[in-house]
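Bit of a strange request maybe. I'm writing a small parser for structure token strings and I need a real example to test against, not something I typed by hand. Could someone generate the tokens for this chain?
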Amino acid sequence: MRNLKITLAYDGTDFHGWQVQPGLATVQGLLSSAIVRVTGEQVLPQGSGRTDAGVHAYEQVATCAIVSPIPEANLVIALNDVLPAAIRVSAAEEVPPDFCARASAKAKTYTYRIYRGDVCSPFLARYAYHYPYPLDEAAMKNAAEVVAGTHDFTSFAASDPEQGALPVSKVRTVFSSKWERRDEEFIYTVRGSGFLHHMVRNLVGTYLLVGKGTLSASDLQAILKGRDRSLAGPTSPPQGLYLVNVEY
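Reply from user aminoacidic:
Good idea to test on real output. This should exercise your parser:
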């Protein structure tokens, strides 16, 4: 058996997220089907994490074990021949048997794009959240630093039915958190040890309340300490979110 690390990018607009779901188009499901067509082997590649419906990835990582001797470079070509154009495999490499896309990950980086112009091009609407209304961007930049460090992020975590009834730690470490202007876009970038369900989108929704003047940086600290989802802002739309990379 060969343990393969597959690196891929995708436009998540037309998919129901990463995780396979019966009767629905998902990235994991389509990648699995492509592997079957190319190798004849029924496998379910395990991703570094689950992206939601409409969320994009510049660099997602998945692992799976196959018997096929197809060289890695040829496998990349073959998979891209059968995958839809919205999913592209950029690399495949053999890794040690104990390497796992999810468990071996040391850090992940996400970005969230907000388009601030008055009119959003239809060619951008699928890839950024259009918010042309007034925002105190300086206040949002200052508040971004509040979540850096190791915290319990319960206030920014959506309930996840996959976790079942057993308690799961909501403690994560955020290595960096910042907002920056790039022309007409205001972009949030966060790098951390791992992220909870909807965590980045809930952070963005809360930062937007800071930008509106509804909340302050000190309020954000209180929300963190409160460990209560109802204290934080709404979940921002999925199309602005991207998984940038996974570090091992």
